[in-house]
Please model this.
Amino acid sequence: MENSAETNVPADTILNEDETRLLATAKQVCDTLIEPRAEAVDNGDTDARDNLIALADAGLVGVTTSREWGGKGCSGAFQREFTEALTAACGTTWFIVTQHLGSCGTIAGSKNQTLRERYLRDMAAGRHYVGVGFGHLRRKEPMILATQVLGGYRLTGTAPWVTGYPYLSGIIFGASLDTDTDRHVYLYAPAGESDALRSTPPLPLCAMNATATTEVTLHDLFVPEEDFVKWSSREEMARGDFYGIAGATAPPLGCATGALRTLRGVAQKRGDGLPMLPEAVTAFETEIANCRNNARRIADGPKDTPVYQKDALDARAWAIELAVRVSHAAIAAAGGAGNSRLHPAQRRFREAMFYTLTAQTGDILSATVRRLTR
Ligand SMILES: Cc1cc2nc3c(=O)[nH]c(=O)nc-3n(C[C@H](O)[C@H](O)[C@H](O)COP(=O)(O)OP(=O)(O)OC[C@H]3O[C@@H](n4cnc5c(N)ncnc54)[C@H](O)[C@@H]3O)c2cc1C
Model:
C-alpha cells in the first residue's frame, strides 16, 4: 500500500496481552522461517508464498481485520511493531502482505456490507489475497478513468504498480472520475486476466523484484455497483498523506534494525582487528532508537501545529537515509562478500533504497533529497 502505515490508525502506546503474545509469535516466525530464507526469496529461488502461508497460520494476516470478521483487530502500536519485525527480516514478504493488510482495513471500513460478507473472513485468514492499485492517484495526470454507467462503473487506464499480482484473488483499483478527475472512486475487481484486464509479466526491479509487481491495464472493465469500495478525492488522499508522513517510518526503521543485525554479526566475526565496527554498532543502535522515538512522537502528536509538516518530513527523510547508511555500513564491513546475492547486506541495501519510494509524495521526495544534500 500503499501500505497499512497509511491507514493512520491512532497509535496506542501500549500493547495488550494478546498483542504482546502475537508479536512474540510474529518475531519467532520471522527469526526461524522468514529471515533465514530472505535471500533465497529475494533471488526468486524460493517462493514468497510459503512465507504468506506461515504468517496466515500464525494469525498474522488478520491483524488489520476486526475480531467480528475473523481477524485480530490489532492496534496501531502493534502494526508498527509488526511492520518493523517483518521489514527487519524480509522486505519482499512485508511488501506483498502489507498491500493485503491495507485492503483488509479498506474493505472493513467500506459502507459496502456485501463486500465484507463475501471476502473479509477469507482475507483475514489468508485464503483470498487482495492487492491495490491506487498509488498513481498522487500523480498529476489521471492514470485510470472511471465512468458511471447503469449498474456500476467502467474503468479504462493503467495501474503502473500492482504488487504481488500472481498471489492475488482481487485488486482494489483507485480511479479518477471522468467528469471530475479530482474525485476518486475505489472499486474491487477479481484479479483474473481477461480482454478488459491485462497484466504485464513482473516488472524487472532492482529491489523487491520477487514481489512480482506488475503493471495492470484496464480496457473498459465493467465493475458492478456491488463491488464499490469507497469515494475519495485528491484532497482527501493528500490529507491522508499529510497525517501519515511520520507514521510510515516503520519500514525503513525495520530495515535499519535488520541491517544492524547483519553489521553486528560481521563485527563479531571480524573480531578485534577492526575496533571501529563495534563502535559503529553502538552508534547506530542509539541513532535508530532516537530516530524511532522522534518519528513516533511526531506521528502520535498534534498535526495542526506550524512545525508539524517540516518535523514530520524531516523524520521521514531521516528514517529513509538512516536505513541506507546502516545497510551501507554492513556492506563495507562485510567486504567483497557483501556484494554476493547470498549476503543479507546487499539485499538490505537495496530494500533501504526502495523505502525511499513507498507512498512517495512530492514533499517526501523533496525532503529526502534535501537531507541527502545537507
Ligand atoms: C516496486 C513498487 C511497487 C509498488 N507497488 C504498489 C502497489 O502495489 N500498489 C500501489 O497502489 N502503489 C504501488 N507503488 C507506488 C508507490 O507506493 C508510490 O506511489 C510510488 O513509488 C510513487 O512513484 P510514482 O511512480 O507513482 O510517482 P512519480 O511520478 O515518480 O512521482 C512521485 C511523487 O512525486 C510527485 N511529483 C512528481 N512530479 C512532480 C512535480 N513535477 N512536482 C511536484 N510533485 C511531483 C508525484 O505526485 C508523486 O507523489 C509501488 C511502487 C514501486 C516502486
Notes: The chain has a mean pLDDT of 95. The longest strand covers residues 152-162. The beta strands are 130-133, 144-149, 152-162, 170-177, 180-190, 197-199, 214-224, 228-233. The chain has three domains: 17-129, 131-233, 244-372.
